[in-house]
Amino acid sequence: DGAEAVRKALDSPSRISKISWTSRTLLLAGARDLVLPSVDETRRLAARLPNAIRKVLPGAAHASLDDTRELNLRLELDLAGILAALTEERGTSTSVPKVPKEPIGATRPSAESKGRAGGAADAADSPRLVDPTPTSTFESWLSQMRRLFSPVFKSVADDGSLRDDLDGLDVAHAGPVLFVGNHQLFGFDGPLIVEELLRERGVMLTALVYPPLLADSSPLSPLPYPLPGTKEAFQRFNAKPVSARALFKALAAKESVLLFPGGAREVFKRKNEMYKLFWPDDSDMMRIAARLNATVVPFSGIGGDESFSIALDSQELLDAPAVGEFFKSRVEPLPSFVDGDVFVPPLGAITPSRHYFLFGRPISTTEMCAAVTHTTISSSAPHGKQSTACRRQARTAHTDAKGTYRHQTHAKMLYWRSPR
């Protein structure tokens, strides 16, 4: 009887307008559903419900709600604007950034190809949630690499216990957050972290990346690196060229920022440098974080340095008689943030290993450098008239964030230990 009543209501346009739930309806269908014509049915329902959001899940089958690999229902409700509406009605709040009124990643009945989030959020606004469903060949390739590496994410709760998920990660506050950690060979860890926090915690990160990754053309042309589509994908997920000014601007806008202090130097490690850190000795990033009362979340990752075997590393390619001059001429005009961070990818073979990430206890900077003098922030700016105590505090926090790493090869686990 209930199904028949709904059918009659949907067949009557005058009655539909009087039904409250039709204004926040999400229609989901698995593209591989071989049991029922779900794709056609959602198309029919979308034509009856002009305000409904329709989405077809490319890899999902009939029992799509049970397929956590293809569907994150919480994220889909958030992208559709339904979660925010429900929590506002009940007078509750969530740790998820508020979604704009026009849902991102949604499909309207009148144009099924529209609605995917394309392009970075405007710099003046907080980053908007982006539908992580691949929209290009490059993003589909990244999705395949994610399945190949099968990442595992863990976090340290407030009581010090190790959680087998990101539930121990407290991101509920409204202030700026700075995620800092080690970079791994070829840098697949960045997209993995961005997608995981988006899917599981509804957090849209602003990733600060090496500028050539966002360039219109590759500095190594005609070599296809970065791969075609890199710039468009990174911009869609709100990546920005790394600089001290970009970090200050993002944190000032209360964004959650992803930063790898080791940068390209750790992405293109030389031979025998597995999991070695190349962070700058200065603590500029901590002084900027303290200036804006940001919370710093240190994290560690393993698996990436073992996923590739190096035949010729960056330095060997630069020293090679045949191609050395070519690489030198191409990387010479590029910016440098860490000693030895040449933009020359090593040659080798892929040897996939599972990736593990551990997010440690947050470091508060609220009371740090309270009397810091406001100075212009730039990549080459002097430290300013900061007190010795402030410098000491920032350096201590820098050391805490850097941490130490222990790789247990028999269990493939990573334990975070922050210096006391």
Which labels suit this protein?
alpha/beta; two-stranded parallel ribbon; globular; 420 residues; 16% strand
Give structural notes.
The protein is of the alpha/beta class. It has helices spanning 2-10, 13-16, 38-48, 73-79, 82-89, 137-149, 189-201, 230-236, 244-252, 263-267, 284-291, 314-319, 324-331, 388-402; strands spanning 26-30, 53-57, 152-156, 162-163, 177-181, 205-209, 240-241, 256-259, 295-302, 308-312, 347-350, 356-359, 363-364, 404-408, 413-417. Strands 3, 4, 5, 6, 7, 8, 9, 12 and 13 form a nine-stranded mixed sheet that branches. A two-stranded parallel ribbon has the order 1-2. A two-stranded antiparallel sheet has the order 10-11. It is globular, with a radius of gyration of 24 Å. Mean pLDDT is 78; it is low at 93-124, 371-386 and 404-420.
